[in-house]
Amino acid sequence: MDFLLSIYKWLSDGLNFILPISLVVVGFFFLFVTKGVQFSLFKVGIKNLLSGDANKSLDDTNISPVQAFMTGLASRVGIGNIAGVASAIVIGGPGAVFWMWFAALLGMASAFAESSLAQLYKTKNAEGQFVGGPAFYIAQGLKLPIIGVVFSICLAFTYGFAFNSIQANQIANTLHANFGVETHTTGIIVTAITAIVIFGSLKAVSKASSGIVVVMSVLYILIGIAVLVVNYQNIIPAFESIFAGAFDLTSGVGALFGHAIAYGIKRGLFSNEAGMGSAPNIAATASTKHPAEQGLVQMIGVCFDTFIICTFSALIVLTTGLWDKNLYDNAALTSQSVVASLGSWSSIAMSIIIFLFAFSSIIGNFAYALSGLKYFTQNKFVRFSFTIAVCAVVYIGSVSSPTSVWNAADLAMAVMTLLNLVAIVFLWKQVKLIIDDYKRQLHKKAQNENYEIVFNSDLYPVLRDKLYHQSIWSRKLDEEADDGIHKTSGYKIFGTNDTENHR
């Protein structure tokens, strides 16, 4: 056991040193590749998300862009926003919050890249459902199917087991700290509710996620506003401590490799998942007319998660001053900070919010894990057994120590993230192709509001040997004009007739 623990520590230390650096480097890389997509197309992404079309699926089998967004957000907006932020502040100081923002700002470009690639390389399974994600673009785009299998296994383990154990653990610990509820009791209840939901279909999971995300986000923002009103005099000092701590050079190695940046970026990644390779699995299941559309939607999810929800958590913790007294950690610190500001009644509200945050992540994580499992097996018995195992891990996580649960999640997260980052960097030309095509068609739509933006892979010979043979992005062209305008003849695109001219 000592030998195994030493190997684990060696791997964990090495990967956790490389991970923050890799996220920053790749984030900067796609900032340049996409020409700052998080700035140039941010308004377009918001507009797409709020449009009526985003709420509609283009067929009866698959989910809409908004449902994919909500399912992804259910996993993003979870216990990482409460426990992860608090943990980062306790270990890395207030400066860790700045590096969470920094990682998210860069990560928005990485999120666009991975989700757009997932849409480009998606395919349909036997039931007519869209499937895709990093395993698919690794296998097809990079011609490395074995690595695709490795990633899908990491995905299934990380989200089905490691991350779900964290969510359950924080629910149990919060209820125990606030009301003295035994962790075994909480574990049984949460496991039972989880089983009821995840034995349903992906659409059922998406609908459950959508409802929970809206309720919990509104409740948490209202709680955060109330805390800030009570502690208004500490808001400016809290921001000052964030910026001062981010660039504090008095701790030896300084900000570059210090605890603030390391834990800020790591916990930020756990929260917003940008570049991790998780969100693309749900992004691929949405029925959209252009890969960039879902890339933009998922990019907005990163922004909402970190700059709104995580910032509220940080200010709740920092304005109450409990973080440096070594009394609480993780979700309990955030919860007790609220109680210290609003009174004992708020412990009930925070327990409900933490439960909703964590439970929404459990079902969102299951959707991710199942997509990884489906990549290498469609066997119904295997899926049933995996679902049972996920329920068992939810219970085990409830009664385990927080430290061991976080350590397992950090290592699993690092492995799959690094695999995904390498993949999207090697596929950067396809990312550039997607965004250039989308921007060009946006320009045409600005000139003609009736113009419909769709992606046509037949216009790009470089994709012909990379996409699946029955690619849903392939259009049959029966006419090509001299000026490069291709006319399509009423072909079928996800249940709608399109007769527009597209370059």
TrEMBL record:
It is found in: Cell inner membrane; Cell membrane. GO terms for cellular component: plasma membrane. It is a multi-pass membrane protein. The chain crosses the membrane at residues 15-33, 73-92, 142-166, 186-205, 212-230, 299-323, 343-369, 381-399, 411-431. Gene3D superfamilies: Amino acid/polyamine transporter I. GO terms for molecular function: amino acid:sodium symporter activity. Coiled coil: none annotated. Its main location: membrane. InterPro entries: Na/Ala_symport. The keyword Protease does not apply. The keyword Ribonucleoprotein does not apply. Belongs to the alanine or glycine:cation symporter (AGCS) (TC 2.A.25) family. This is AGCS family alanine or glycine:cation symporter.
